[in-house]
Amino acid sequence: MNLPASQRAFVRRSPWQIQRAVVFALMMRELKTRFEGRWTGVLWLFGQPMAELLMFLWMNTVLRGRINREGYDFIVFLLAGLVGWRLFRMLWQRLSHGVNSNKGLFGFRQVKPMDTFIARACLEVVLELSTFVLIALVLARLGYSPLVPVDPLAWLAVIGMLVLLGIGLGICFAVLIDVAPRVDNLIHILSMPLMILSGVIFHMNRLPADIMAMLQYNPLLHLIELARVAYLPGYIPMQGINATYPAVFTLCTLTLAMVLYRWRRQQLIAS
Q: Following DSSP, what letter does each residue of 119-159 receive, concatenated?
């Protein structure tokens, strides 16, 4: 409906339209804060994951003397696991600090803590997947393959579970940090050990059976292995890997996140 400009200001917007405008504004604010209006911020966005990839490649080739695994380049093996891990880790870290970073905005009654979670989650997914595409194109130009998942739908399903798990843990930690700020230290303490135990850097197939059985309580290990199954042709995962356990764990984490958020939403705004 076309209305005169003088009347448009008085048209009531639906709650969905208000939330969409708030989330978009928060995304633009976050984007500006992240890059600080400098091209070096964009360079760091794409340079950091490439540096991680090259560091892990160096660790494998120089320290272990190996560059190939079962017919594909080790850098592709790394990329297949690293993209999902980075999505999970960045969502976990960014969302856990979403409330504290936007305290001043909660004075506006349209802005809710959940809006900050949605905005950060959308932004992280877009940025990390864009980074992955760029790195894949660079590696393809250098002659590495395969850089397209052999089963794109299965790969997207696994990436979706990693995203939801990162969102769930991020919201849980955001609430816990508001209650006990020292919990924030756990994220930094757990990040690197969890990365190693999830099989992002090294294959866990050659570990003793009892250790492998213990490691499989980690849902991230299942998801990283499933991501490689969907990405790499002929990839053989660890025995016992399945999609049911991480799916149930992700659903429980999201449920816990919503319960904690519902319990503390007013305190998150007021604190």
A: HHHHHHHHHHHHHHHHHHHHHHHTT----S-SSHHHHHHHH
Tens digit of each residue's pLDDT (9 = 90 or more) over 76-92: 888 888 899 999 999 99
Angle at 258 between CA 256 and CA 264, to 5 degrees: 100
Q: What is the dihedral of CA 170, 224, 128, 124, to 10 degrees?
A: -10
Structure confidence by residue, pLDDT tens digits, 48-66: 777 787 787 777 766 554 5
Which tokens sit at 71? 């017919």
Q: What letter would DSSP give residue 59?
A: I
Task: State the CB neighbour count (10 A cutoff) for residue 194.
Answer: 18
How many Cβ atoms from other residues are within 10 Å of residue 45's Cβ?
16
Task: Quote the pTM value.
Answer: 0.87
